[in-house]
Amino acid sequence: xxxxxELGVPGEKENIGNGVAYCPHCDGPFxxxxxxxxxxxxxxxxxxxxxxxxxxxxxxVFEFLPELxxxxxxxxxxxxxxxxxxxxNVATKAIKAExxxxxxxxxxxxxTDT
Length: 114
Known about the structure:
The protein is of the alpha/beta class. It has three helices and five strands; from the N terminus they run αβαβαβββ. The chain has one domain (13-109): FAD/NAD(P)-binding domain (3-Layer(bba) Sandwich). The protein has helices spanning 24-27, 43-53, 72-80; strands at 35-39, 58-63, 84-88, 90-98, 101-109. The strands form two sheets. The protein has a three-stranded parallel beta sheet. Strands 4-5 form a two-stranded antiparallel ribbon. Strand 1 (35-39), helix 2 and strand 2 form a beta-alpha-beta unit.
């Protein structure tokens, strides 16, 4: 069967169920009204961002490559949404948590390594 791709970054495994989720359809309602992140700008990532944007406060998409890999129609829909922010050419370094809940995504801009 299909398996969600893991990032392999610090804070990922230990926060599954406490802010780290792999299924926007299954787990999206738990994040209603919150700020969330989607890692990956391919079709699955942008579709997840679009689905989540209808129920969460905001979605930030983190894409490793300089351009999104998703189909143009999906990218256009995401760009048109006021509550979707897209960061390109960034590398996710860690998932930060406090009190058993994810609070931040640590990342660097690949062009400057900052």
